[in-house]
Amino acid sequence: MRTLLLTPGDIETAAELIRQGELVAVPTETVYGLAANALDTAAVNKIFTAKGRPQDNPLIVHISDRRRLPELVTHIPDDAVKLMDAFWPGALTMVFGAAACVPSAVTAGLPTVAVRFPGHPVMLELIKAAGVPLAAPSGNRSGLPSPTLAGHVLDDLDGKIAAVIDGGPCEIGVESTVLDMTGGTPCILRLGGVSRADIERVMGKSVTLDTHSEKPRSPGQKYRHYAPVKPLAAVSAPIRDERGIVVICPEEQAHLYSNAIIYGQLSQPETLARGLYAALREADKTDADRIVAVCPDGEAFDAVRDRLRRAEQEHTT
Ligand code: TXA
Ligand code: MG
């Protein structure tokens, strides 16, 4: 298949492909997603094939209007309403009981469904023009860093999907926060674009965190993720420079290394998330033997450190 490179002006073409059951990669404010009609099992199955994604890892359903939520879920807790008021549209995904219309290909057979109302205008226009909710995982080959540019999607999936819409770089750069709303106390299953502190502030109570449990409630958490091909070590403080390494680090530390890739500035934590995945992909293209990524401790860097730890595990387990 020839993958079409579309612009945001080509939404109608993209929407028609979605209605025909094809896959279209599309920018969101977090990362590029690989979208299909969430209510079409055959289309959803194509996502798993194109990405090489394990069948038991469920997908997030994206909507462009809160009024579509009741059709997809069995119950909307009061806490969820507060969070929607504060963070939708945005980088928060919430897990609810799944309504019968949601195909089991989307939920991977779980009784729950993850839903997000994204904020990116191109993604919103595509959902509206297609007239259906869109199932969309990150648009990378399974296991590799998520794409934050249309070119990253093509590097991984050219020839395997119908089209990619080039909407420029993603603003946030790491995936949405996934929050399970089905228990008594909401539980963060994946750290991401909305911080734990902001969620707790809005709800006026604390949430639990279950991103590393033995029996993950978010099946995606058990898989190797976000990892470059070269071995990677994540450290919290600058290291001694060495031959054969490429160091992904904040701009303030780049002078310490002969082979450095800057991924953002310490003084602006959000820039580190924004630049992380592109830096990991760039590091893979160098002739270094291994990658060292420097990410400081501290809550502002939680999502970045989480991704680096998972990328690191791929090579140590
Ligand atoms: O920012 C994002 O969330 C991006 C953009 C495209 O929206 N999407 C994304 O999707 O990162 P994906 O498939 O790469 O990650 C979805 C995560 C996985 O860890 C998956 O296991 C979890 O959400 N998930 C999906 N449905 C779930 C469910 N019903 N219960 C628990 N976890 C679920
Ligand atoms: Mg992903």
Question: Would you kindly provide a written description of the structure presented here, covering whatever features stand out?
Answer:
The protein is an alpha/beta fold and 317 residues long. 30% of the residues lie in helices and 18% in strands. The chain is built from ten helices and 15 strands. It has helices spanning 11-19, 41-51, 69-72, 78-87, 104-107, 121-130, 150-157, 196-203, 269-285, 302-316, and strands at residues 4-6, 24-26, 33-37, 60-62, 92-97, 112-116, 134-135, 163-165, 177-180, 187-190, 208-209, 232-235, 245-249, 260-262, 290-294. The strands form two sheets. It has an eleven-stranded mixed beta sheet, sandwiched between helices. A four-stranded parallel beta sheet has the order 12-15-13-14. Strand 9 (177-180) and strand 10 (187-190) form a beta hairpin. Helix 1 (11-19) packs across helix 6. The longest helix has 17 residues, at 269-285. It starts with a strand and ends with a helix. The structure holds threonylcarbamoyladenylate (TXA) and magnesium ion. Residues 28, 30-31, 33, 57-60, 93, 95, 107, 110, 112-114, 116, 118, 136-138, 175-176, 178, 189-190, 217-221 line the site of threonylcarbamoyladenylate. Residues 28, 30-31, 33, 57-60, 93, 95, 107, 110, 112-114, 116, 118, 136-138, 175-176, 178, 189-190, 217-221 line the site of threonylcarbamoyladenylate (TXA).
